[in-house]
Amino acid sequence: MSFANDGPKKTRWTKNTVQIFCMALAGAVFLFVFAYIPMFGILLAFKDGDKELNILQALLTGEWVGPEHFVRFFNDYNFKNILLNTIGLNLLMLAINFPAPILFALFLNEMKNKRCQRAVQSVAIFPTFLSWVVFGGILIALGDVNLGIVNPILRGIGILGQDEYVNLGEAKYAWFMIIVSSLLKGTGWSSVIYSAAILGVDRDLYEAATLDGAGRFRQMWNITLPSIAPTVTVFFLLSVSGLLNNSFEHIYVFQNAVNLSMSEVIATYVYKQGISNRLYSYTTAVGLFQSVVAFILLVASNFVSKKITGKGIY
Predict the structure, then answer these.
(1) Are 46 and 65 spatial neighbours (Cβ–Cβ below 8 Å)?
(2) Are residues 217 and 237 in contact, defined by beta-carbon separation less than 8 angstroms?
(3) In terms of CB atoms within 10 Å, which of 14, 42, 85, 245 comes out highest?
(4) Per-residue pLDDT averaged across 196-224, rounded?
(5) What is the average per-residue pLDDT within 74-85?
(6) 3 state SS of 210
């Protein structure tokens, strides 16, 4: 008796399979060209390429200086202040801005009037489509000492006296402006991901909980949150890994000479040193330092998360 056909069957490629493969291949090629090939430029962090006109030539034939640029950054008199601003802002945004879209998505899910739900979500998402230059400019104008509406409102509700005013451009309000603007601009769009995860929760669980007498808050706590926990975990770990990364446009639009001591972060520092002062090797070293720290934080937080909750990115 012959068993020649008992081996694993080869799957024939269909037209649909070829299309999916081509789409995946295009994404892989894009990632290779724009993410992996540029990694060759990391060598500039260990070479003397500052103020060079031909960056490629400096990369290939520049003098090898080793960790000199890293030591220079760590010894910079601004290093401590820049690092504290970067980590402090990101920790506050992790504590305030990270749970905000989750709560917003949960409350949206509890709205029974779908038309009202869509209207609220659309209004919340709208600021995302404005650039930081436009959105930040609007907030700065609203907080202007002479022409803005913030001071008249504060006087109207009795927080400020008639001769008092708040200058939101001062250094002590820099973090407040950055965090509040991030909340207003990002909460609506970030909530879309969690809303999509909530839609995937089995509706039978809610019906069973209702029959058992569970109220809406208990259903939210015992069904919705545990069901979207994997999604929350992934984005939390990614947020932790970005503790040294800030949105350049976000910070730069609120930055001025008065609040520089509180608003200067690594992203704006790299821009000023790398573009304005043409310190290409130096800022490459700073960027590499950010990336290494981000990788370590991601691996460490993923390890801790898997040990504690059993969930992680990989």
Answers:
(1) yes
(2) no
(3) 85
(4) 84
(5) 92
(6) helix
